[in-house]
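Narrative of accomplishments. A recurring question from our advisory board has been how the design workflow behaves on a single, concrete structure rather than in aggregate. To address it, we present the structure tokens for one chain from the evaluation set, followed by the sequence designed for it. No filtering or post-editing was applied between the two.
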């Protein structure tokens, strides 16, 4: 996130959002471990929607697997984000399918934890993906 919660959306600027967010997370992990926090207690969150433009969020989503190199579990919070609604041409009623699609994509690309509003629906979709990927 750039700025404060009050100013983060005013004019976020990244030269390379993936590298900059990744570097920020690496710095924070190093700070925590230097303070004695075990890495097993750390979860990464690339911060979708926090101080990022539509384009930044798309770039993060398209490259979400790049955070796997940090070797820590990743949490993503994509549920009902405005950039998803924008992809769907502002259709507020269709946020559920967009949120679930983004969640599934993120899990397939390495996310281990999801923050969602629609737990039952997301869980049902993930069950189908799990079964489809299972080998017998």
């Amino acid at each position: 996130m750039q700025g404060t919660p009050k100013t983060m959306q005013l004019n976020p600027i990244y030269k390379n959002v993936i590298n900059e967010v990744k570097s920020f997370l690496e710095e924070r992990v190093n700070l925590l471990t230097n303070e004695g926090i075990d890495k097993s207690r750390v979860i990464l969150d690339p911060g979708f929607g926090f101080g990022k433009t539509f384009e930044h969020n798309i770039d993060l989503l398209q490259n979400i697997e790049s955070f796997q190199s940090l070797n820590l579990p990743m949490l993503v919070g994509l549920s009902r984000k405005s950039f998803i609604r924008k992809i769907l041409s502002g259709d507020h009623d269709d946020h559920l399918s967009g949120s679930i699609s983004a969640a599934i994509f993120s899990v397939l690309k390495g996310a281990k934890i999801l923050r969602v509003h629609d737990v039952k629906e997301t869980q049902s979709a993930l069950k189908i993906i799990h079964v489809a990927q299972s080998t017998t």
